[in-house]
Amino acid sequence: MAEKLSIDLVFDKNWCDIPASVKLKCIGKMEFKERLSLRCTAKAERSLVDSQKINFLKGVFWGDSDDGAVQVQNASYWHVQNYDKTDSLYKVAQIWIDKSSKNGSIFQVSVDKIDSSFDEFLKHFTDRIVSKTKKRVRIRTNNPDSHILLERAVDKGIKAENLQFFRLMVISSEMKESEYDDSCKEWVCKMDPEVYLEEWEHEFSLAPYVNRK
């Protein structure tokens, strides 16, 4: 006769008595809000929640600037719209330099048309400049394999008269200028597709006629 087996993974105990390995599996099944709630219960739970990555496509944080601070860590892409200060470009670039961020990291921002973010970036990294034009600035990092490229969106198709758009990227130091993407439409639309709205409406209005046989 077979021996009666004991089932160790059935718990009629409190959450605090469950092994960490099982807790991690439970956390992996939780939604974002559930994880945040659990994270607030104790230091041990906070460490467990923080150790588990969560994949999401988009996060939107609403509120006045005095309501607190939003911390961004390990993001390969993020953008800020209608930023009202001139420090975003050089501060993000400095963080990337300090942390030796990976090639492919991207930060984008839209600012007021008369904003001086581009000039502030130049002043801050005068000793690191590899090349510069009215549209782009390339600087060295502390990593010989990586450079940082700042691009300004220059396109007559952009309808936002009061805004300018910038993209900051960590690139390979071996990247040639001939490999730069001269079209900014795709990355600007990723931030704010409405700046090309009139052009899209025109293309859409022509579509029925273009597709006629």
Largest sheet: 6 strands, mixed
How do the helices and strands follow one another from N- to C-terminus? HHHEHEHEEEEHH
Tally of strands: 6
% residues in beta strands: 15-25%
Assign an overall shape: elongated
Total of domains: 2
Question: Percent range for helical residues?
Answer: 25-40%
CATH architecture of the largest domain: 2-Layer Sandwich
Rg over C-alpha atoms, rounded to the nearest angstrom: 24 Å
CATH topology term of the largest domain? TATA-Binding Protein
Strand order of the largest sheet: 1-2-6-5-4-3
Which structural class do you get from the secondary structure elements?
A: alpha+beta
Average the pLDDT over all residues and give the rounded result. 82
Give the class-level CATH name of the largest domain.
Answer: Alpha Beta
Number of distinct helices? 7
Uncertain spans = 199-213
- Distance between termini? 79 Å
Please supply descriptive tags for the structure shown above.
alpha+beta; TATA-Binding Protein; 2 domains; 6-stranded mixed sheet; 7 helices; 6 strands; disordered C terminus
